[in-house]
């Protein structure tokens, strides 16, 4: 089929058949359709959307663009979690080993940073030696022996998504529900999971800025899960300020280690425990989310989550010495404090600005082939609701690139809004969504 005609059809609000979509996607994977035509198609979808049937076709085609992993010989209900991406969202690094420590196998195929958000693979690869490019047989072996494995797409696993994912990042077509849904579900279905818990973020630092869009995405993902026979539930969570206190790859790994050692980072651990409780419920290790959440807390407090994390790091080639002594990690050349020029209560921290600022420091990519500096990032010393005095530190910047520091200092300082009166706190978890609809979340 002529790709130009298919691009024009979608641009003009047409609905593409399975055969038409298959022609485009397989042609792109095979190299017959160039990047510029796929970019045009992605932009057409961004503006004209896809209906549910088109989206389901897209998922099916992407899944079968490569191999589909069979994990049926590994005991237990395999449960994964996916976040739609946020600033400082390092939940997976705590969640996956924590859930595995409770007896639920966690196969996780993750992605890299997109736009202003960080990626789980980039965080893991900040651990010297950690391999995210395991073969499918290695992937199965680690999951069977350790109970948790975290990798990226192999060359033969969802190659369509691997190519399109990178292209979306540099063509401003990330924030599109059918494309997000296709990317997420194709990887999850190909990895061999049995059930899925979704963390769909909403707010300034999320791809879905409005709660209505986040709900629409969650409903689409859950419907796709049901279509392909996978039990799926989702949570709508807040992303108006960064999650936790660090933004940047190694900085976030260190924060996760500290949390698994018992440090209380309230927003980060609330989301982590609730998602973990849901995973345990779907995995048959808890009757309710509340019961699962309590089991997850116990796994952190008794050290089993951290031990499982270390097992995974060692098995995937990471150097445990840095996990056991994070202070031995190489330091950034430049460390700059940003101090408050007024007193009051932190009313808002613009997550989008913090995300872009972190990327400028070297923690993210502006172009597909940009190298990431694993040391770079931002340490937040104050969070929303905290009281601050003139001269107190709001944040600390880490980078090897001196040329960007003045610009980033200004952006980060402007990202903090300080009020003289305390503001009402918004809930961190807005709602839970399943095949029956959306339900208010009242906490565990």
In short:
This protein is α+β, with helices and mostly antiparallel strands and 444 residues long.
* CATH topology label of the largest domain: Pyrimidine Nucleoside Phosphorylase, Chain A, domain 2
Strand count, sense and barrel status of the largest sheet are: 5 strands, mixed
CATH superfamily of the largest domain: Nucleoside phosphorylase/phosphoribosyltransferase catalytic domain
Radius of gyration: 21 Å
The total number of structural domains is 3
Count of discrete alpha- or pi-helical segments spanning 4 or more residues: 17
SSE topology:
Blueprint (H helix, E strand, L loop, with lengths): L2 H9 L6 H13 L4 H14 L3 H12 L15 E5 L7 H11 L4 E4 L10 H5 L11 H11 L1 E4 L7 H11 L7 H15 L3 E8 L8 H17 L3 E8 L7 E2 L1 H12 L5 H17 L6 H13 L2 H12 L4 H5 L9 E6 L4 E6 L1 H13 L13 E4 L6 E2 L4 E7 L5 H11 E4 L9 E6 L2 E4 L4
Parallel strand pairs: 1-4, 2-3, 4-5
Antiparallel strand pairs: 5-13, 6-9, 7-11, 8-10, 8-12, 9-11, 13-14
Can you describe this structure?
By secondary structure, the chain is of the alpha+beta class. It has three domains: 3-48, Up-down Bundle (Transferase, Pyrimidine Nucleoside Phosphorylase, Chain A, domain 3), CATH 1.20.970.10; 79-325 and 428-440, Nucleoside phosphorylase/phosphoribosyltransferase catalytic domain (Pyrimidine Nucleoside Phosphorylase, Chain A, domain 2), CATH 3.40.1030; 332-419, Pyrimidine nucleoside phosphorylase-like, C-terminal domain (Aldehyde Oxidoreductase, domain 3, Alpha-Beta Complex), CATH 3.90.1170. Helices cover 45% and strands 16% of the residues. It contains 17 helices and 14 strands. It has helices spanning 3-11, 18-30, 35-48, 52-63, 91-101, 120-124, 136-146, 159-169, 177-191, 211-227, 249-260, 266-282, 289-301, 304-315, 320-324, 351-363, 405-415, and strands spanning 79-83, 106-109, 148-151, 195-202, 231-238, 246-247, 334-339, 344-349, 377-380, 387-388, 393-399, 416-419, 429-434, 437-440. Strands 1-4-5-13-14 form a five-stranded mixed sheet, with helices on both faces. A four-stranded antiparallel sheet has the order 6-9-11-7, sandwiched between helices. α16 (351-363) runs antiparallel to α17. The longest helix is centred in the middle third of the chain and has 17 residues, at 211-227. The protein is globular.
